[in-house]
């Protein structure tokens, strides 16, 4: 029998939590039919799987992307919902290595008293994780791309009100498209 092996890197504190609590790790192994070995000191993860079960590979990648983006409890939702997806934005692609710019951009995404983050989450039904130099976006597939666009606009300096208007417009259009699609299918 041949086996496949993949390696992932996750934050050390997440690796330690996976090893200590075991519940999520066991759920991941069971749901994906894989064996996971975690190095709690270095954050390395070794995943062993049967190649004939490679259909779980995409979900496996999503799970470890989510863990790497600072999500933990939310991974249960990713495992339970086929239509959930993860988007990750590397903030260093926008600000380079400047710590001051990174702090400024994170502040724009979070907003005063967390308002901007809460608004994007509310509009898109997604959860945002601003962790180290990454922004993770986890939620229904149809909305993660929209949330990513909104976050990228905030990163690029768009006014918050402009981003909210953008979200409102896009969501209205999505709703209209859905109604049109439903009416076309009921006529058949």
Structure description:
The protein folds into two domains: 4-80, K Homology domain, type 1 (Ribosomal Protein S8, Chain: A, domain 1); 84-184, 2-Layer Sandwich (Ribosomal Protein S8, Chain: A, domain 1), CATH 3.30.1370.10. The protein is built from nine helices and six strands, in the order βααββααβαααββαα. Helix content is 57%, strand content 19%. The mean pLDDT is 91.
Keywords:
Ribosomal Protein S8, Chain: A, domain 1, 188 residues, single chain
Secondary structure elements and pairings:
Elements: E1 4-9, H1 12-21, H2 23-32, E2 34-38, E3 44-49, H3 57-68, H4 75-80, E4 84-90, H5 92-95, H6 99-110, H7 115-124, E5 127-131, E6 134-140, H8 141-155, H9 160-187
Antiparallel strand pairs: 1-3, 2-3, 4-6, 5-6
Provide a quick synopsis of the model.
This protein has 188 residues and is an alpha+beta fold.
What is the CATH class designation of the largest domain? Alpha Beta
Elements, N to C (H/E): EHHEEHHEHHHEEHH
Structural class: alpha+beta
Examine the coordinates and then state which fold CATH places here, giving the name of the CATH topology of the largest domain: Ribosomal Protein S8, Chain: A, domain 1
Strands in their spatial order, largest beta sheet: 1-3-2
Number of helices: 9
Low-confidence runs of at least 5 consecutive residues: none
Q: Major sheet, described briefly?
A: 3 strands, antiparallel
* Helix content class: 55-70%
Question: Between the first and last Cα atoms, what is the distance in angstroms?
Answer: 50 Å
């Amino acid at each position: 029998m041949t086996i496949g092996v993949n390696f992932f890197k996750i934050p050390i504190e997440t690796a330690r939590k996976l090893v200590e609590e075991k519940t999520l790790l066991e759920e991941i192994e069971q749901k994906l039919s894989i064996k996971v070995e975690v190095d709690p000191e270095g954050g390395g993860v070794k995943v062993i799987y049967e190649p004939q079960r490679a259909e779980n590979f995409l979900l496996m990648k999503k799970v470890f992307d989510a863990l790497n983006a600072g999500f933990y409890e939310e991974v249960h939702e990713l495992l339970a919902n086929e239509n959930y997806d993860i988007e990750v934005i590397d903030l260093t692609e926008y600000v380079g290595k400047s710590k001051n710019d990174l702090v400024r951009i994170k502040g724009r995404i979070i907003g005063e008293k967390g308002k901007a983050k809460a608004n994007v989450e509310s509009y898109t039904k997604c959860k945002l994780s601003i962790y180290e130099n990454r922004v993770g976006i986890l939620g229904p597939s149809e909305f993660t791309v929209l949330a990513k666009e909104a976050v990228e606009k905030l990163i690029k300096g768009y006014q918050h009100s402009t981003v909210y208007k953008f979200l409102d417009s896009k969501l209205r259009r999505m709703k209209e498209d859905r109604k049109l699609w439903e009416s076309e299918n009921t006529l058949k």
